[in-house]
Amino acid sequence: MTVVLFTCAGQRVDIVTAFARAGATTLAVDVDPLAPALHHADRQALVPRVDHPDYLATLGELAAIHDVRLVVPLTDLDHVVLAGAGGRLGDALVLVPGLDAIHRCSDKYLAHTFFEAHGIGSPATWLAESLPPDPPFPLLVKARRGFGSRHIFLAHDPEELAFFLRYTTVDSMVQAVCRGEEFSIDVFCDLDARCLNAVPRTMIESKGGESIKGMSLRDGELIAFGARVAETLGIVGPANVQCFREPDGALLVTDVNPRFGGGFPLPTAAGSRYPELALALAAGETPEPNLGDFEAGVVMTRYFSQVILRDAGGGVLEPVVETAIPET
Question: Who has the most CB within 10 Å: 32, 215, 274, 285?
Fold first, then answer.
């Protein structure tokens, strides 16, 4: 079975277990021994922080020991490191796009200018020093390199705008507020950046920037838009395209994350087969695009869960098998 190494595994139990169901042997790594995904993987290991000089060497050692064939990062934190790994991870396929695409996705202002240059809709966006004299309020003060809806402030007038530009502690930009309906499109591309599938979903409810309720949607315009954005950027593997459909029908992309999105369970349940496609790429296969091949109308509603551990001695934590609560 193909061994898949998941970096920055964190809480992404959903992704690790989906690959296991697809037939992979899962190896999850993280800096935190309490990362839940470690304890749902077939194998686990602790690694240094992403910014540690030994991080990549440690991944290389694990790849050799476990004969890893596929590396899947579960956050954006180590994309640049992995993209520049060269042969340091053996023959494993590293499922990240090139450095240009990574930099465009990580810098929201750079992404905006890229989309404008390629005729892809994007909300009006300015750097603070290049704001027009009479911008259209309300406006967002938004981190250029933010994630999880952090460092975003809504300004209703010039006074609030000036305040938030002073208040924010990160490099920021100013963006027009989208007034339409928000959608997420989970896409998956092959090694030549051909989009193999794109699964739109509604954003019924989100918390902390992550979708917790949504429904898969067969919308040909959104499917084509997600594929176009992914292919124009040069995405390899998974990405999540966030966009709005404005009242005039225009589609405006607001963010692209070149990884499996927070709402990953929904396209998986809808039949995206993204883990199977990733394993096929790792095996040297060339799957054909099959846009729209998923089930519409599948609804996701998420909840909290947990892993219960006990100290097995010697610093080893082992999962506790929880017994069912007896019926009364």
Answer: 274
Cα 223 to Cα 58, 107, 246, 289, 291: the distances in Å are 39, 24, 16, 12, 7
Q: Residues 9-26: pLDDT tens digits? A: 999 999 999 999 999 999
The neighbouring-strand residues paired with 222 are none
For the purposes of burial, counting CB atoms within 10 Å of the CB of 311, is it exposed (0-12), middle (13-18) or buried (19 or more)?
Answer: exposed
67 three-class SS: coil
CATH no. for 97-121+179-328? 3.30.470.20
- For domain 3-95, give the fold: Rossmann fold (3.40.50)
Where is average pLDDT lowest: 76-85, 182-191, 255-264, 308-317? 308-317
213 Cα distance to chain centroid: 17
Give SS3 for 97: coil
Percentage of the chain exceeding pLDDT 90: 89
Distance CA 82, CA 192 (A): 18
| 116: Cα separation from own chain's centroid | 23
- Distance between terminal CA atoms of the chain? 43
Strands 93-94 and 299-301, sheet pairing? unpaired
How far apart CA 50 and CA 61 sit, in angstroms, is 15
Q: Is 85 in contact with 73 (CB distance < 8 Å)?
A: no
- Judged by DSSP in three states, 31 sits in coil
Which of 108, 268, 114, 120 lies closest to 186, judged by CA? 268
> pLDDT tens digits for 153-178?
999 999 999 999 999 999 999 999 99
Q: How confident is the model at residue 327 (pLDDT cuts 50, 70, 90)?
A: low
Residue ranges of the domains in the chain? 3-95, 97-121+179-328, 124-176
Transcribe 154-204 into DSSP letters.
EE-SHHHHHHHHHH--S-EEEEEPP-SEEEEEEEEE-TT--EEEEEEEE-S
